[in-house]
């Protein structure tokens, strides 16, 4: 028993030493004004509720519609498991490799007519591609599919967008957007989420969706389910295509669950660059919390940070605001990482007979800012896993400012009671208010200043 306890103590010490010793970053003396349970790294929301006006309007619209549980579940599963379309160049390369493989298999059949051999190889290649290649198809959001989507994703989508926007609202309280653009606006979850957080501060909502049916449905919800009623939120405009002029910017540009609707990388790159040109303050991207959704966000992150856009009107640099505490390559993209960078949000379900009262939305998000925004806490590590509470110690899995994943075991004796208490209250998605001296990292980085001066 003693040897087991000794091994555990050695393992716990090693876990803490992997990323250096975390120290509480109380440079702004925040603990003098707030208790530990409300430290500024806390970003999680307990439960998200759709606004009553939105729920009542949606129920009124669906009251006379024949929407079945099977249709809703089928669309939910399809959207969650949907993958990106295969690039033409990748498809041609794979076809060439398969053709060489089948030619080698048939080279001993000398009696076969050359024309028949070529035809057989062609058919084999096509059959193999059909079986191994994801068959991406664009979704046609007709009036009926729009209603099914409303029942399937209105509540969960609203929860994810609200949590992403809450990050800006909490960390930059002085930011009050006047204008907002929503690309792939769908049923209007972004409008309702932004209005819930900033109220009448937002004077203009530019909603862009290629589906006229979805635009009509979104407007109907804003009107309370009646075409003749006044809109609950004012200043909302609908378009089917992105505005052309790159000179007109919006304080807040958002794209939620829309990148996978684009047919190829070229279309995604063009769209992301256009959205970034339109961004005057923050660009917010939200996707499913799957490996595919996370990869799409990291692709967009790379497109913006790498630059290369020829139409540059705003020369302020792109900075990663959240969730990453760095601008290096995401460590979750490595082959060793089994789970993507995702987060969860609890929400009140839409009142349908088959829905449970409360559910969880798993999502990934990315927020980019024009220039450096926020205080000196940008380097605080992000909690990327469940915080494990144990007697007299806490396990924290974080992504650090050095661009690496860390596992810290925080105790009161080793790290101080303040950091220990702050860590115990943290949850997935929060930030640990700590300075960590990372080995082999930049000596000028926070926590490493003066480290090599002696």
Describe the structure.
With 454 residues, this protein is α/β, with parallel strands linked by helices. The protein has three domains: 11-41 and 377-436, no CATH class; 52-81 and 143-370, 3-Layer(aba) Sandwich (Rossmann fold); 88-132, no CATH class. It has helices at 2-18, 52-62, 69-81, 88-106, 114-132, 143-171, 189-198, 212-222, 265-278, 291-306, 412-415, 417-425, and strands spanning 22-24, 179-183, 204-208, 236-239, 250-256, 279-288, 318-322, 343-348, 358-370, 382-383, 388-390, 393-399, 405-410, 434-436. Strands 2, 3, 4, 5, 6, 7, 8 and 9 form an eight-stranded mixed beta sheet that branches. Helix 3 (69-81) packs across helix 6, helix 4 (88-106) crosses helix 5 and helix 6 packs parallel to helix 7 (189-198).
Structural class of the helices, strands and pairings?
alpha/beta
Kindly report how far apart the N and C termini lie. 43 Å
Oligomer: single chain
Largest sheet: 8 strands, mixed
Give the H and E element order: HEHHHHHEHEHEEHEHEEEEEEEHHE
CATH class of the largest domain: Alpha Beta
Q: How many domains, as an integer?
A: 3
Q: State the CATH architecture of the largest domain.
A: 3-Layer(aba) Sandwich
Percent helix:
25-40%
